[in-house]
Amino acid sequence: MNPGEYALERAFGPLSDDGSRTGARGVLAADEARRPWREGWDVLNAWGVGAACVPVGDGGRWSDSSALMRELRPVFRRDLTTGLGVVGGILRPMVAARSTDAEPLRRRVASHLLSGGLCASADEGPATRRTTPVLGGHEGSLLVATRQDAAGRARVLVADAAAPADAVPTGAASRLTPAACRGLDMAAADLTGLRGESADVADDCQDLPYLATGALAAGGAVGSVDTAIRLVLDFALSRRLYGTAVAELPHAAGLLAGAYADVLAAEAVARDAARALDRVLNRAPDRAPHDVARIAVAVHLVPRLLSGALRDLATVLGARFYLREGPQALFGKFHRDIAMLGVLFADRRRCVPWIGATGATGVFETAADWSSAGLTGPAATRLAGFAERRARLASAAPAPAPDGAVSSSYAEEHATLHAAAACLRLWQDGVRTDDGFLGDPSWLAAALPRLDHVHDETRPPVTEDLAESILPEMIARLAHGDPLDASTTSHTPTSLAPTDKDRT
To answer: What is the pTM of this model?
Structure first.
């Protein structure tokens, strides 16, 4: 954990503390009442969440998007809706203002957030709606809206927040349950004729505010699946079936290992996107045209990887997946709320056009030569197949769709190969830093074949030999309270370690 992540983790305290309103019981109580988790927001405000999401140049602490993504993980580990509320009500307004050349507008939003204020955030996108979803719609005191015209040109508008309509948003967001919308402080408003201070998005990518915050939300949501794996693994280790622990049954072990492999792949893609995001937002000299594609891949793939992991974990948990009380009660909320990540932050129609728009080769420029990666065994075999597909894609021109955009199949292949390259880089980082687990190719061999099935409802479990290599690491992280993501293990005591009460 980095220092900011560790400090926020300690401020929230143990999830298993039934007497704390920032524990699992407090999160579920707010959910039952269909209200935002205010006790969690109190902790976030005391920690300085506004300053964490404001760039250093504007008086805040945000200088590294990878670090920020990790710093927000503790809130996602407890409540995905509150994490999305931070991204929607704080990060998206700041990124929108930052994407313009209007310094007064940017400083107005930064000052509001640094003073502890929350924004109401609206993003109309290219679609025309009668009402627009507004995050932080009831509690935000400054409205930051991004609107696109018929030509796709985006404009950011900042105004005093008006009272939103009481109705939950219609259209795509209608797939969300009323409880989820209220927990996110989500409303709908008619923004037609709204006036205020405004400026054009200055970046070539007119959808930058949406894509940037989508990538950060997806990276933060890794924390939600971290907790979900923790809950299910603890159950599988203590529950006995056929005379043995559930976690030792080959099918369950393969599902658990597969879920962790998905999380590591998601982490790899999200880290890569965060590095690209810093270059784009800072308008760095080394920014490349494919950096936006790297961000779009994370927005498109990471929510789907995390959703797949939760489906596999639900299979292991069985009927307990539905329970609203007991040590696994929080799992059902994560399983329900993951849909919000996709609906509000990962619209496929807004990701795919950017994924293949810069051609196939650019997104791989920072990857090592796949043919000399130094791998052996199943990971090497799978990587060789990806390398052949990469070569074919690099020599092929994008196949245009009927509307002139990049075809969906071309973009999907591009995204899959990019994710494979990101996984390879994460493994290489593990080798370089002598990380005993990340530098072992077992997790890579488990993760790579699953990338081709990221849109499938079910995937086969990880093979027994790979599961036997992955599960001991998962169990050790659970016992020591280390995050079940790609962070290095320090065995520093945290609020993540299970207690005996968790196993009752």
So the answer is: 0.91
